[in-house]
Amino acid sequence: MTHPGFRPTHVVPQQGMPAWETPDPARPTVPLDPLLPVRLVERRGDWGHVLCSNGWSAWVDGRYLVAVPQDPPLPDDPPTTAADPRPLLGRTEQALARYRAAVEELATGGLDGEAFHHRTQGLRIGVVVDGESVWLYDPAWFCWVYGDGSRLSTYAADDPPAAVQDGGRDAGPHGGQDGGPDSGPEGGPDIGHAPTRVVTPDGERR
């Protein structure tokens, strides 16, 4: 039975997705059907608490929910920070410029190997462009994002869904809420992390 006035904010991806009773991987529940309309009522880091039209609720990996289009913005409204790819493109360009400058100094003898290591330590750059499609690595949120020229969405993350830590990050800018570019899973960037692996909607890594 659909509750009167139910207005979904998202739909489940076309592959369906696993769900949990609480934001805890040890408490799984019935998975959600493909393209099921849901309303996102709460975010805790990567976790999303969703409400279904029949009143049933569960926790999911909120990064993979597909947003339902809302009323279009006024023509003069700029894209929101969460959707606009230009800020991340600009930060990626700046990081690449810093790396190229360090390479030039190394090639001309202005830096030795140790100085080059220190100059480039912490830089992480990832860009793949294929026609109108672009994949960018966002080191502030430890994830790859996909863009079509108009907006960005999370494609792959370093870590499974994580709850907010004290002083830590909120949902990332590609998950629908904005946050500081220097925030990390524990409240600050962490250079020594595991390699990025694609996280599929069914929870598997590859």
Model description:
This protein has 206 residues and is of the alpha+beta class. It has helices spanning 86-107, 113-120; strands at 10-11, 17-20, 28-32, 37-44, 47-52, 57-61, 66-67, 127-130, 133-138, 143-147, 152-157. The strands form 3 sheets. Strands 6-5-4-1-7 form a 5-stranded antiparallel beta sheet, with no helix packed on it. A hairpin with a 7-residue loop joins strand 2 and strand 3 (28-32). The longest helix has 22 residues, at 86-107. The model is unreliable at 166-171 and 176-200 (pLDDT under 50).
Strand order of the largest sheet: 6-5-4-1-7
Low-confidence stretches: 166-171, 176-200
Please tell me what the overall shape is.
elongated
Distance between the termini: 38 Å
SSE map:
Elements (H helix, E strand, L loop, with lengths): L9 E2 L5 E4 L7 E5 L4 E8 L2 E6 L4 E5 L4 E2 L18 H22 L5 H8 L6 E4 L2 E6 L4 E5 L4 E6 L49
Antiparallel strand pairs: 1-4, 1-7, 2-3, 4-5, 5-6, 8-9, 9-10, 10-11
Q: Any descriptors?
A:
single chain, 2 helices, four-stranded antiparallel sheet, 206 residues, alpha+beta, five-stranded antiparallel sheet
